[in-house]
Amino acid sequence: MSWVETERHSFADDLRATDPDAPTLCAGWSARHLCAHLVQREHSILHNLWDQATTKTPGEERFMRRLVEDAGTADGYAALVDRFEAGPSGRSLMGRFDEAVNLVEYAIHHEDLRRGSGPVPSRDLPAPELDDIWRRARPILKRAYRKSPVGVELAPDGAAVMAVRTGPGTVTVAGPRLDLLLHAFGRRSAANVRVDGPPASVSSFHGWATRP
Questions:
Q1: Do the beta carbons of residue 209 and residue 191 sit within 8 Å?
Q2: Torsion, CA 187, CA 31, CA 125, CA 99, rounded to 10
Q3: Is the pLDDT of residue 159 over 90?
Q4: pLDDT digits (tens, 9 = 90+) for 48-97
Q5: What angle separates helix 177-184 from helix 127-144, to the nearest 10 degrees?
Q6: What pLDDT, on a 0 to 100 scale, did the predictor assign at position 211?
Q7: Cβ-defined contacts of 174-178 (< 8 Å, 24+)
Q8: Phi, psi angle pair for 162, to nearest 5°
Q9: What's the CA gap between 24 and 3, in Å, rounded?
Q10: Is residue 71 a contact partner of residue 35, using CB atoms and an 8 Å limit?
Q11: Residue 1 pLDDT more than 90?
Q12: Pick from 23, 63, 140, 151: CA 20 to 30 A from residue 168's CA?
């Protein structure tokens, strides 16, 4: 079984164990909305793009709302989770590039689900899976800090330090790799990381990182 399949099955198990109305780290989305987003992203790409481009208030997506409403009952929600767990069709674009386009997406959204109601213990993922997630996320990590007012390097537990932004007064963001991913993807209040560096640089970085 590939890592993306392993993550998909684990994610589906947690979706089933979670109250469909439970909050997530995605503002305006419950667990039900999050699952609907994943299904729409893999089975209705054009609708997903339309919703992302036109929706100003999360939770009011035009096309995704239909999936959310259909999952309003216990049976409907169970069917939605089953559809997610089945994965994209192997004949679709998502299916052909499943590992490349979904592994990091799942890792982030899985934590959105787990941490939506507050702090939870970190997941103990196999080192090879973490290595693969981290490798695939590298280009995104570099883009995430491109507007930082100071230089930034990431220091993941158990892996090499990675410079992601050159600049004056470099700060080091350290922590578990999943938490570093959450920080880079804007889930900063839920990310268990430490920022070290010159005091002025740390203050400047925090000011930038906590802006809406």
A1: no
A2: -90
A3: no
A4: 889 989 988 888 899 999 999 999 999 999 999 999 999 988 777 778 88
A5: 20
A6: 85
A7: 176/122, 177/130, 177/133, 177/134, 178/107, 178/111, 178/122, 178/123, 178/125, 178/130, 178/133
A8: -130, 120
A9: 23
A10: yes
A11: no
A12: 140
